[in-house]
Amino acid sequence: MYERYWLLSRRPFNAPGECANESLAAPQQALLEKLRFSLLDSNGVAAVTGFPGTGKTTLAGCLAREMRHRGGHVAWTTTSVFDASSLLRHYAQQLLPGNSSTKTSSLSPALLQDQLQERMLEQGGKYLLLVDEAQSLNEDSLALLKRLVETAAQPMLKTNPPRLQVSLLLTGHAVLRDIVRETPSGFGTLVTPFTLDTLKRDQTGPYLEQALRAAGGQQTYFDESAVDRLFRESRGNLRLLNRLADLSLLAGFVRRRASITEAEVEAALQEVALPQAA
Fold it and tell me: What's the pTM value of the predicted model, to 2 decimals?
């Protein structure tokens, strides 16, 4: 459908968590620039909050990809329930060579933390730690993350290693800001807060066209009636907008339309359970 009918080179709209820099919406692009400076170019801690579906996980994926391209180390976990011990084991499995889940389960949290910090201080280099759904972290987990980030301030264990940089990105719901600010470990003083907003109406049409152009599109695919309806129904929520736009292309394909109108969006709406208005 995408290639033969719509003459695109690929699916145009990002799946949740999928990073394609050229297809990011305007709020994501603006925040990505700030996070590059805060987390990739220096030690830093950032918390990105927003409604579900605004693209926080996609943004984290873009940062992780860029850090790997720079030769850095990335440890990423997505969870709804994580105590400090589980969090540490997940990071150790990703950052310590030869550490399987079986091996890490036999080591005490204190020993795992020592091994992880020792490796950082021996090897140097850049580390990016990520936690999605971070509003579920407890005080012990936040205290652990603070200790790992502060590893960068300790003396290196070898002569002339690469400079150690440890950065942390937390993403989650709005309550994450309060949790971080109120934790007694002083963790909140390290954190730079950001908010990822939903799209505005005047950003919706340009975003759709940008995503389609990035996928090789050479025409106007959505008329103004379609863009208006997509914005009204999605309320600027990027995940829902992408889903509706994708299904609208499918409806246009089935109906053999040259472009998408409100009628095709209406057909797409029959396939999607919309969230209730607050």
Answer: 0.88
Helices 139-149 and 84-95: angle between axes, nearest 10 degrees: 40
Q: What Cα–Cα distance (Å) separates residue 231 from each residue in 110, 193, 227, 248?
A: 50, 27, 6, 13
| Dihedral sign from CA coordinates of 108, 111, 113, 119 | negative
- CATH numbers and ranges of domains, the chain: 1-24+199-272 (1.10.8.60), 26-195 (3.40.50.300)
Look at residues 16, 18, 20 and name the one whose alpha carbon lies nearest to residue 212. 20
* CB count in 10 Å sphere of residue 195: 14
Phi, psi of 123 (to 5 degrees): -90, -30
Contact 24, 32 (CB under 8 A): yes
Q: What are the pLDDT tens digits along the chain (278 aa)? A: 888 889 999 999 877 667 776 678 999 999 999 999 999 998 999 999 999 999 999 999 999 999 999 999 999 987 665 788 989 988 999 998 776 555 666 778 889 899 999 999 998 999 999 999 999 998 999 999 999 999 998 888 777 767 899 999 999 999 999 999 898 888 888 999 999 999 999 999 999 999 999 999 999 999 999 999 999 999 999 999 999 999 999 999 999 999 999 999 999 999 876 665 44
> What is the C-alpha to C-alpha distance for residues 17 and 49, in angstroms, rounded to an integer?
15
